[in-house]
Structure formats: C-alpha cells, structure tokens
Amino acid sequence: MNIFIDENIPYAEDFFAELGNITRFAGRELTAEQVSVADILLVRSITKVNSQLLNQAKNLSFVGTATIGEDHIDKTLLQQKGITFTSAPGCNAISVAEYVISSLYVLSEKYNFNLLDKTVSIIGVGNIGKALQNKLMALGINLLLCDPERDQTEEDFVDLEYALTHADIVTFHTPLTSTGKSPTFHLLNEENIHLLKQDVCLINASRGEVIDNQALLAEAIRREKQNELPIKLVLDVWENEPTPLLELIKYTDIASAHIAGYSLEGKARGTEMLYQSVCQHLNLPIVKRLDKLLPVPSVTNLVLNNEYQSETQLKAAIHLVYDPRRDDALFRNLLAKNGFDWLRKNYPIRREWSSLKLERITNNEKGLNFLKIGFDI
Ligand SMILES: NC(=O)c1ccc[n+]([C@@H]2O[C@H](COP(=O)([O-])OP(=O)(O)OC[C@H]3O[C@@H](n4cnc5c(N)ncnc54)[C@H](O)[C@@H]3O)[C@@H](O)[C@H]2O)c1
Ligand SMILES: O=C(O)[C@H](O)[C@H](O)COP(=O)(O)O
C-alpha cells in the first residue's frame, strides 16, 4: 500500500506507518508521475487535485485533504473515477476562532476600544463561525449572523448588506465558491465595500478570494487620501497565495500567512480524521488516537481571579497563550526573504485553550476564587 502524504501533515508516521509505505511530498511540487504509483493520497490545501495531477493514476483509491477547505479538490472528477474522497471538517475550527478573538483583543488594545461596546458580524456560520459565535457570546459580545443557507430554515440571521452596514467588526468564515445561489468569490467587492462603517474592523480568515483584494486596497487608499478612518484590517488569507498583494500589507494591522488554523491541535485533528477515514476505507479497526500522541503542555501557573476584573486581565491571559502579533512580525520581517510557504512550513508551535489545564482554587480565608491555568511557555 503506497501512501503519499503532504510533508506538512503532522503525526503522519504515527498514524499511517503500519498501514503501508509512506512517501512524503512538498504540496506544491507533487507530480502526476508520483501519483501514478499511489494507492492513497493525503494532501493539504496547496495541492490542486485535478485531471492534470491524476492523469497517470492507476491504483489510486482514496484522496483525503487534512483541511476544512475543499476548493483545491475536483470532487466531481474523483467521483467519476470512483476514488473515495474525504476532508477534515471542523478540524481547526477552534484554532481559527482563537486566532480571531486574539486578533480582536490586539485591535481593542491598539485602538483603545472595549469589545463589549461592539457588534460583530460573522459571515458564514458553519463549524468555524459557530465556534466563534459561542466564544464571543460567552464574552458577552453582540453578534449578527449572516449565512443564506442556514437563513432558509433558521431564525436570527441577517443578509449580507445588513451584516456589513450594522457591524463594527466583520469577520469572514465562508468557503470559497464560485457557483450556487450564494457564491463567495469576491463576496466583499467594490460594489459593497463602501457599506462598511467608517470605524470598522475587517477580518478574513476564510479564503483570500472571498474578498476582492484590489478593491480592498483601493478602499484603503481612498480612505487615506480622504483623511477618513482606516479600516482596522486583519488578513490571514490572501488572493493568489503564495504571492499576496504586497501593497495591501501596509494597510493591514495584523498580517499572517494563512495560519489561523495552524494550532498543533487543529493540524493534528486533521491527520486523525483522515486516519479514521482511511481505516474505514480499508475496513481496518481504528487503533490510533490523537490524545495519546499530543504532548501534554508543561504546567506553568498563571493564577487569575476567575471573575476577571477587566478586559485587561482577560486580554493578558489570552495573549499569553497566543498573540497574533508574533505571526504579524514574522510575516512582515520574513515574507520577502523566506517566502509565504516557508512561513507556513516553519510555523512555531501554538497550542489551543483546549489544551490548557484549568483548575478552580478557592482561597477561603480571603473568600476569593482563582482560576489556575497551566500551559506551555
Ligand atoms: N485561515 C485558515 O487557516 C482557515 C482554517 C480553516 C478553514 N478556513 C476556511 O474557512 C472556511 C469555512 O470553514 P468552516 O469549517 O466554517 O466551513 P463550514 O462548511 O462548516 O461552514 C461554512 C458556512 O458558510 C456558509 N456560507 C456559504 N456561502 C455563504 C455566503 N455566500 N454567505 C454567508 N455564508 C455562506 C455555509 O452555509 C456554512 O454554514 C473553509 O471552507 C476554509 O476555506 C480557513
Ligand atoms: O482549509 C483549511 O483547513 C485551512 O485553510 C488550513 O489552514 C489549510 O492549511 P494548508 O492545507 O494550506 O496547510
């Protein structure tokens, strides 16, 4: 059994070594000739699985992507060839939600506002949008939800125009689609970008092409020339990756190299989900489990009064676990020298809150409760 696995899929040997011979490949360099001897192909988003790649595939019976997004996969072709396909839905939803919240606290600090005074529009309320919705609701932040598909059968959704005009913060979490009733290609574009509030925060952690980057740059330049408030901008994804629109970086508060989903847990869950699908495909028992493989964070105590007195304390705790300014600095300092893909391949370990060990400590003498958080430093 020849199993071809992208070099950026973690724990692949732990999960798949006993199922066959593993060949690792660089996602953008995989060739049709290599695939010609593959039985199982496991990719990430940078490998286009299309007729050109599969035109010599003789034994390929299974393709998996260790990602949520599927826009790099020709699913119709796989179906026509009778090749089983699976992705990893929701694998890094928590990671993206934490990236967004950490970024919002950076913006609130930089521009001196309180998130509790803001309304957030979530555009695309699926696995990631829901994870973000739950966290923002827990923090008491006002929300607007925009998701035409869900709006057909559920209450409490607004349309895109309302979501853009009534929110102080707009964050995109849709797939990249060009067909269907609500295609998302250039969902934010030169026609509707003017609907955004003057004092708006805009976040894209979906796919770069969901926002027309040229229109965004034009709006940023227009605001600058008119001495209007700049859009407070967080971009994790860019049109034409790995060659982003460089002029746009100047107008971006937080710029990162498509790493919002790159927590260790997020990437590793993707591997585990593909392993489970491959076992099902091969009618083999599932014997490997991620929780036996993930390193348990060393405990370094941060004691916080669990009724945090201010956003400052909460912000400090959140940024102690993950601060996107780290990724922004790497992006600005190393993009030109090392490149977009290098930044992603050499992404420093980031752990999710889910890995924290939380413990309530009650100090009866002082009548105080404390929340003890253990995490990697
Ligand atoms: N930056 C990153 O690292 C990163 C990580 C994971 C996923 N992503 C991207 O985020 C996307 C969403 O992930 P998910 O797990 O939430 O997917 P999902 O499929 O669970 O949810 C997507 C939601 O978007 C909605 N939607 C579709 N078209 C829409 C439109 N025109 N307007 C509003 N809503 C629309 C769908 O109805 C669905 O509810 C993925 O497809 C992927 O492209 C990026
Ligand atoms: O779709 C996803 O899961 C995310 O965009 C993920 O970050 C893609 O990562 P990649 O496959 O490009 O390494």
From TrEMBL:
SUPFAM superfamilies: Formate/glycerate dehydrogenase catalytic domain-like, NAD(P)-binding Rossmann-fold domains. CDD domains: ErythrP_dh. Its main location: cytoplasm. Keywords: Cytoplasm, NAD, Oxidoreductase, Pyridoxine biosynthesis. InterPro entries: D-isomer_2_OHA_DH_cat_dom (IPR006139), D-isomer_DH_CS (IPR029753), D-isomer_DH_NAD-bd (IPR006140), Erythronate-4-P_DHase (IPR020921), Erythronate-4-P_DHase_dimer (IPR024531), NAD(P)-bd_dom_sf (IPR036291), PdxB_dimer_sf (IPR038251). Its EC number is 1.1.1.290. NAD(+) binds at D147, T174, A205, S206, R207, D236, G261. Residues 114-253 form the D-isomer specific 2-hydroxyacid dehydrogenase NAD-binding domain. Residues 9-282 form the D-isomer specific 2-hydroxyacid dehydrogenase catalytic domain. The active site is at R207, E241, H258 (proton donor). It catalyses: 4-phospho-D-erythronate + NAD(+) = (R)-3-hydroxy-2-oxo-4-phosphooxybutanoate + NADH + H(+). Pathway: Cofactor biosynthesis; pyridoxine 5'-phosphate biosynthesis; pyridoxine 5'-phosphate from D-erythrose 4-phosphate: step 2/5. It holds the Pfam family 2-Hacid_dh_C. Homodimer. Catalyzes the oxidation of erythronate-4-phosphate to 3-hydroxy-2-oxo-4-phosphonooxybutanoate. Belongs to the D-isomer specific 2-hydroxyacid dehydrogenase family. PdxB subfamily. HAMAP family: PdxB. This is Erythronate-4-phosphate dehydrogenase. It comes from Psychrosphaera aquimarina.
